[in-house]
Fold this protein.
Amino acid sequence: MEAEKTKNLMICSLFVSLIAVGAFIRVPVPVVPFTLQFLFTTMAGLLLGGKRGAISVGVYIAMGLLGFPIFTEGGGLAYVLKPTFGYLIGFAVGAYVTGTIANHGTHLSYRRLLIANFTGLAVVYVFGMVYYALISDFYLGNPIGLWPLFLYCFILAVPGDAALCILGAILGKRLIPIVQKKQKAKETSWI
């Protein structure tokens, strides 16, 4: 039992590290560069399941809020006042949703993984866009219209993340059976 807790802690820590590194791996594309954070938060949900995936992302967020410079623009408690902080909240909720959908049922298919990933992506963007609009309006005193919000916070940013959803499904299809096989082998060794 203690070995299982240690293993879970190590795997969750690995994903915290990957998410932090992903914040600084920027893929240069015209107009809106994107990072690999979304890929690693999605993979946390896919491989760890909804609960542990969300915990990993939550630990990452907590570390950043404590002052570790692991967010794309630094860290610290004041980060909650940045309009983009909602995307970080969305990463945690999205990892939970993605992991829950992907690991439900017995037959693992690309279709289910894609549904899980794109549903998680939708969650991330809903949290991110709503938070962006609220902070812009109530904290910054610079309300953003619905069309500019949709253009800058969704249309220009989503193509790269959609590609990461597809990549995540491909990786998940290959890696989830390996993770499940190791868990089943461990469970039968205790019998």
Remarks:
- The helical segments are 2-22, 37-48, 50-65, 85-102, 110-139, 146-155, 158-189.
- The chain has seven helices and two strands.
- The beta strands are 26-27, 34-35.
